[in-house]
Amino acid sequence: MSKKDYYEVLGVARDASAEEIKKAYRKSAMQYHPDKNPGNKEAEEKFKEAAEAYDVLSTPEKKARYDQFGHAGMGGATGGGFGGGFTMDDIFSRFGDIFEGMGFGSMHGFGGRTGGRRMTRGSDIRIRVKLNLQELAKGTEKKIKINKQYICPDCKGRGAPSSADVKTCDVCRGSGMTMRVTHTIFGQMQAQTQCHACGGEGTIVSKPCPKCHGEGVVKGSEEITFQVPKGVAEGMQLTVNGKGNAARRGGVPGDLLVVIEEEPHPDLQRDGNDLIYSLFVSFIDAALGTEVEVPTVDGRVKIKIEPGTQPGRILRLRAKGIPDVQGYGVGDLLVYVQVWVPVKLDKSEKEQLEKLRNAPNLTPAPSKEDRNFFERMKRMFS
After folding, report:
1. Which end of the chain has fewer surrounding CB within 10 Å, N or C?
2. pLDDT for 24 beyond 50
């Protein structure tokens, strides 16, 4: 099933401001919040769908990529997006500030913020993946092994051997924030600051896990499988949600950012969604006509060279190029015919050509259109 447009999900225009997008998400989150819709799976899916849309549209880099490439530009990873591998905990952890003041209490254990408690997020990992022309045209599944931080298997990310070894901070009482009072000429001023004792996490590990030393994450490698949609291009960046570095002590994982590189093809050149092939034929084949094979992303195909084909002619093979990444059709294969003139001739070849030098039909007689170089260029790209 195809995904709904993110702007449609939040009910905002494509030129909506950041504040309008945030306001729309807050309204949607209020409508479909689990506390208001207990046991309603459809509301829960809409809640996740709205969070996924807000995650993209509230992040300038992701929003720009989405505006240019649509859902294909966000990556085709399995389990990507809030509607896939992300949990309700992830939503409340990442967007806890959105839910503050909504009157939903403690978020019923969904990992929401309590007061100003700070939730950590793992860092993103950026890699480059080379794709050949066929992979770019057809799409592909890639399996890569990367070095990253992942959740400690011994303590399950707690940073301690058991839950009993994680204590609520006595200084901030689990809020992650403390109130500081300063005296000024205008009187007493109060300000919230991050708790110095727990670093804003609201908890303190009394007995650190021996494997991760209380961090909740360890270094290692992971094999990740993701889908590359057809039609991607050099420099496009795909996002595999939640497959970056794990966050310490149960925070939100970062993303894996996959930058696309194109491997050069020995025969074909890419121009947008079109492919270009330079076909060299002898002047005899150009004059008499022939049948030749040309390469495509699907293999070699035969095309007919009509008698009297002129140098510079473009033969267009419809839908033999690269699919549009957003699904708007397929490009063409443009075969650029060039007549090859021999640079060396033996004696018998020269004698045969000399006999034809003054033949009436071999004397150049270009038309007005043939004389105009710029008209030929216009024909080439029309």
Report:
1. N
2. yes
The answer to whether 124 and 241 have CB atoms below 8 angstroms apart is no
C-alpha span between 327 and 196 (Å, rounded): 52
The first and second tokens of residue 333, run together, are 């294969």
Pairing of strands 290-296, 299-305: antiparallel
CB of 193 closer than 8 Å to CB of 117: no
Residue 183 has, within 13 A of its CA and on its CB side, a CA count of 0
> 370 or 86: which carries more pLDDT confidence?
370
User: Beta partners for 150?
Assistant: 218
Q: What is the largest CA-CA distance in the chain?
A: 110
pLDDT, position 39: 76
> For 299-349, how does the pLDDT look when each residue is reduced to its tens digit (9 = 90+)?
999 999 999 999 999 999 999 999 998 888 999 999 999 999 999 999 999
What are the two backbone dihedrals, phi and then psi, of residue 192, each rounded to the nearest 5 degrees? Answer: -85, 135
Residue 190 three-state SS:
strand
Output the six-digit token pair for 136: 């770019």
Which residues lie closer than 8 Å to 15 by C-beta, 6 or more apart? Answer: none
The answer to whether the CB of 55 falls within 8 A of the CB of 83 is no
- With residue 225 as reference, give the H or E element that holds it: strand 217-228
Are 42 and 48 spatial neighbours (Cβ–Cβ below 8 Å)?
no
Q: Which residues pair with 228 in a beta bridge?
A: 140
Q: Locate 50 and state its tokens.
A: 């709205």
- Decide if 262 contacts 234 (C-beta within 8 A): yes
β-bridge partners, 252: 121
Expressed in percent and rounded to 5, the helix, strand and coil fractions of the chain are 30, 30, 45
Phi and psi at 350, nearest 5°, equal -65, -40
Rounded Cα distance, 224 and 228, in Å = 13
Helix, strand, or coil (residue 380): helix
Cross-strand partners of 128: 259
Predicted confidence (pLDDT) per residue in 111-160, tens digit: 444 444 556 788 999 999 999 999 999 999 999 999 999 999 999 888 99
Other beta carbons within 10 angstroms of residue 166's beta carbon come to 20
Is 159 buried (19+), middle (13-18) or exposed (0-12) by CB count in 10 A? buried
